[in-house]
Amino acid sequence: MTLATWFALLVAIILAAETVRALRQRALGSERWRRFFRHPTAAWGLVILVFLIMVAVAAPLIAPFDPDRQLDIIGLKNHPPSWTFPLGTDVLSRDVWSRIVYGARVSLGIGGLGALVAVSVGSLVGAVAGYYRRWVDAVLMRTVDVGLALPRIFILLMAVALWDRLPFGVLVLVIGLTSWFGTGRLVRAEVLSLRERDYVLAARALGAGAGGVIFRHVLPNAAAPIIVSAALGVGNVLLLEASLSYLGIGVRPPTPSWGNMIADGAPNIYTAPWTTLAAGLAISLVVMSLNAVADGLRDALDPREEGSTT
Amino acid sequence: MTGVVWLLRRLVASVAIIFAVVTLVFILIHVAPGDPCVGSDESARDPAMCPLLIRQFGLDQPLYVQYGRYLLQLLQGNLGYSFSLHRPVRDALAETIPFTLQLAGVALLIDFLVGLGLGIYQALRVNRLPDLVLSNVTLFAYSLPTFWLALVLLLLFAEKVKLFPLGGPSDPVLCPLIDSAYCVADRIWHLVLPALTLGLVGAAGTARFQRAAMLEVAQQDFVRTARAKGLSERRVVLRHQLRNALLSFITRFGLTLPFLLTGAVLIETIFAWPGMGRLAVDAILTRDHALVTATGLIASTVVVSGNFLADILIGIADPRVRVAADEAVPLLPA
Amino acid sequence: MLSAMPRRVRLPFSILVAALVAGAPSACERRGGCTGSYCGTLIDAAVGEPGTLLPTSTEEIVARDIEEQLFLKLADVGMSTNTVGDEDFQPLLAQRWEWDGPLTLVFHLDPRARWQDGQRVTATDVAFTFDAYNDSAVASPYRPQLKRIASVTPRDSLTAVFRFRERYPEMFYDAVYHMRILPAHLLRPVPRDQWKTAPFGRAPVGDGPYRFVRWQAAQSIELVADSTFFLGRPRLRRLIWRFTPDLGVAISQVVADQADIREQVVTPENLERLRAAPQIALYPYRGNVYTFLSFNQRANGDTAKPNPIFADREIRRALSMAVDRASLVRSRLGELGKVPPGPMSSLLWIWDPEIRQLPFDTAQASSILNARGWRDHDGDGIRDRAGQPLAFHILVPTTSVLRKQYARLLQEEYRAIGVRVDIDEVENSVVGQRVGTGHYDTAILSRANDPSPSSGIAQTWTRAGFGGSNFGRYANPEFDRLVDRAIAATSPDDARRLWRSAMDLINADAPAVFLYSLENMAAIHSRVDNVQLRPDSWAALLRGWRIPSSGLIDRDRVER
SS3 string of B217-261? Predict the structure, then answer.
């Protein structure tokens, strides 16, 4: 690690902490934010998330080495952590810390995009089902049942493994398309209760089309479960990507992702555990932060929960 | 709506779902590129054999013919033949089911015992130090990738501190079959690490969920009434909260089932546990049509039955919920 | 937590826990009291499970190790692995033999040989076995090795007559080495096209020193010694092959004394772990496996058209010169691997470091690629020509950690000279299917050698291997001719000279990059005595191993 990279890292940490502190100041003005910050873990989670996003974005500044570069396959393989290599090197003499930093890009990217697809499809399906009811609802909900009946990894494996060379984008799309079922059910329940509200009835009386009603009145008010879903969804997709990479069908080498770093390091876990440990802890940290933030959001956005589950 | 009609409706729906799943899996595996003639390693395979194999298993017929044939076979109890395992699918599956049940059973036990215990304990000591500490612990445990936890546990307790075996379901020397008390104990000893891995992460989730559910119930009117009537705090909790919170626990049971089949896949691989999850993954990766379809069938049947069972239990326990059971909403999105 | 439970639940719960705790010590009884010189249980930590144990149809090395104990050959090579003539061969099923003319070999079977169901082993079995191995319906991978034998007929119940098509130095070797004799009376009823999936393969009946006991799917295979074995009762009573998904876990089992044998250590990291285990003894022996990166010279998916990249000999040579094979071996294998001077392992007598090989020379590789028009026209770091980038895929099986690591190393080596490589990691059986049908660009494959180059090299690298093991479809008529002459050469000097020329030629043609040849190291529990490891098949002499009664440990004494 060079001085420059240490400096960049420090800047990222400070920036993250400052951002959250600024948000906290703003919290005093808004009831919702105050509820959010009542959880100390939610605040910490937010700091960690912002920090990791910054790290991912500024990866070339923070990572001291090229993540794919095999520095010295004879002399530097499986080197234990040291000042030059804070997390050691892996079996092919690549710097683990650099790979974690660049892996943040890949893993968070997949997590974010996959969750986006999942939440979008789920919200849409749920809203349509809840709004139209009757046979539309029945058909869509049966589809959800079928989707929930098959274990997710099973469907994913079938889709990914059977077509040998899936491009990255398609992989994310497929992950998203197999993860929307829970959100769908949630949003549908929300919409069912919302559709009888006054403003919805008013909008329909005024002749607003179904699409308009759904997008302008129903969905924004169903935002609470959608947002919480999204936060948790990112974590789920991350874990899913890790599992797929462990099975060898996730992100392809040499691109580092936290999942395939665990897979690469697993054969050497007895003699050189740092690769596997670092990647696993990184994933745990992110998922933990996401869960903490989701907890806070759930309290902040849902008035029914107020005051009970602190 | 009477109970019986409701039950029948649910039953028909469940069967329809299983049917749809099997059809979906069947179509997927047959449409995927790659042909079924595979050898076990890279040595020579006579290319003339392949068309023979294809004809023998009827794979050159159009898809709907194959599908019809498959359904017919299914009704006769024939699950097909597995290319990769050189055995009828039914035999291969039958061998793995006891192992999966053992692992899932013990993992579920750990999950619910530890999870419920922790959740209830936390709700009783809400916002005091034990609750806060445990909240963070469960948050961390809930966020761990299970297969990573498996690797770490294996490293710690099988390698560094040689307390548990390194995988496999039993001692191959003394207990190839379970035929004595010693062998039962041996099987349990081999189960500890894999079941702990699955169970602990699940327990963390259950604990969080249970705590939230119990605290929510605490606010409801009937609890406040009971408290107002002067009943002791402990009895208020244990009689009313527990019973109603258990209802939501049963709902969650139905949701945990698919997770056990999913999460178990990697655990089974790492601990060399010969269960159905590993079989399913290997089947998909080797494009073994019959085996994949059969495991899809079994997996969906298990899940759907679990949900169905959960619905019945809730329906019995709380008639208010029966009508709304169809619209059961997962309280923590999957 | 106990205090949180209602009183009603607390009592039964405590009783349950107390019962389990009390029951545990009594459950920990050890059974068995085998003492003496015929005890012993050895557990082999095997990676990967065989598909079938029927010798005509097995493909995995683990299956062959197990079949060594179950089925006998007529005779087998000695520790010297000399395959010329018949002086160095050990009689097994055949008690003695003689030549009845230049093309006729007569074997006299040992009258004491018995199948494990009690029937005698007869010459009919031998004739039946030859017929089965040759039958295209059985589609045995060993069929090509028997092509020089015209017929096998029984003269009487204990005499089998082999007739050859031509005379060559390794006639005896071909007659005895490739076939394991099968019981005709049990296999005749099985339709030939169903042999690969026959139940016999899951519960074999043989005539060897060990009997099959049970096969627990995905867990283990157990064999027990046949105390009436006519060549001497094996001293080790039980052999168990235990399957693990992973080499690392297998090594852990040996280190933790949960297994006794790990016949291939493979990497220096594993060796370190085993050296630290006090109860393990390490035995080096010559390796018989070599691994190579195969270039598909036909188009990916269409064997009728040439491959746009690899059909060109100069490009193949350039790609071979771009790989620093010695560094890769030093990095991944250390002392446990060598750079092979051609398609061979160190087991083969034709191994000669003087054989002409392509040097590691990235400058020359670059200039060849430049000359062929592959330059980086668009500045993206990857060479291109007429708008197409110089890119290909490497196919590698998920089961081999070493080959996966090699794929990543090669990816980096090629990136350095402007070639883009993508890695496809797929299941082992899918690798087999894809290379067999030509649906690949390059693949990292392994070959296990027989003790003689005559079978393997012809099968994998000559035109005769098209549709068989020659997946890359390399064909050089001069090479084929040299190999044929080398096999038929009567004097050892002629043979050596011809093989040397053939190897020089194949290296110059670069149909593959010959990456490494494993130097074997076996880790075996130190209590085992008289360990003999024959380099072509480590388990061939297992029946001679023994454990002195002073060295018996718990699992040896079990008497099931």
Answer: HHCCHHHHHHHHCCCCHHHHHHHHHHHHHHHHHHHHHHHHHHHHH
Q: Count residue pairs from A and C with Cβ separation < 8 A.
A: 56
Angle between helices B3-31 and B63-75 (to 10 degrees): 130
Query: Which of C560, C551, C546 is CA-nearest to residue C33?
Result: C560
Angle C50-B193-B301 (CA atoms, 0-180°, nearest 5)? 70
pLDDT beyond 50 at C164: yes
Question: pLDDT tens digits for A68-108?
Answer: 888 888 888 888 898 888 899 998 999 999 999 999 999 99
Query: Which residues, 6 or more positions from A199, have their beta carbon under 8 angstroms from its beta carbon?
Result: A217
Provide residues of C within 8 Å CB-CB of chain A. 246-248, 251-252, 269, 272-273, 327-328, 330-332, 393, 398, 401, 405, 407-409, 411-412, 415, 422-426
pLDDT band at B260 (very low <50, low <70, confident <90, very high): low
How many angstroms separate the CA of residue A144 from the nearest CA in chain C? 31
pLDDT score recorded for residue C28: 45
Alpha-carbon Rg for chain B in angstroms: 24
Closest CA to B13 of B305, B302, B259, B255: B305
Partner residue facing B333 (CB), from A151, A186, A292 = A186
Beta strands in chain B (DSSP E): 81-82, 87-88
Q: Which residue(s) pair with C513 in the sheet?
A: C293
Q: Directed axis angle between helix B289-317 and helix A134-149, to 10°?
A: 120
Distance between CA B207 and CA B204 in Å, rounded?
5
Residue B144 has its nearest CB partner, among A157, A182, A284, at A284
Whole-number Å distance between alpha carbons of C374 and C382:
9
pLDDT at residue number B40: 38
pLDDT at C393 over 90: yes
CA atoms within 13 A on the CB side of C154: 15
List all residues 6 or more positions away from B78 whose beta carbon is below 8 Å from its beta carbon.
B88, B90
* DSSP 3-state of A23: helix
From chain C, pick out residues whose CB is under 8 angstroms from the CB of B162: 256
In this predicted structure, what is the pLDDT of residue B181?
A: 85
Paired strand residues for C281: C524
In B, which residues are within 8 Å of C1 by CB distance?
A: 117-118, 121
Interface contact A212, partner B, CB < 8 A: no
CA distance C193 to C186: 16
Nearest to C52 among B86, B154, B286 (CB): B86
β-strands C280-285, C520-525: how paired? antiparallel
Alpha helices in A87-167 (DSSP H): 96-132, 134-149, 152-162
Least confident of A280-284, C6-10, C386-390: C6-10
Q: Which one has a higher pLDDT value, C61 or B1?
A: C61
Chains touching A by CB (3 or more pairs below 8 Å):
B, C
Chain B 231-270, residues with CB within 8 Å of chain A CB atoms: 258-259, 261-262, 265-266
Three-state SS across C378-425?
CCCCCCEECCEECEEEEEEECCCHHHHHHHHHHHHHHHHCCCEEEEEE
- Compute the Cα dihedral for C428, A161, B257, B310 and give only its sign: negative
Q: Is 60 exceeded by the pLDDT of residue C469?
A: yes
User: Among C107, C101, C104, C137, which residue's Cα sits nearest to residue C122?
Assistant: C107
Across the interface, whether the CB atoms of B32 and A163 are under 8 A apart is answered: yes
B332 has a pLDDT exceeding 60: no
B contacts of A161 (beta carbons < 8 Å)? 284-285
Q: What does pTM read for this prediction?
A: 0.87
pLDDT of residue C343: 95
> C374, C319 in Cβ contact below 8 A?
no
Q: Any CB–CB contact under 8 A between A253 and chain C?
A: yes
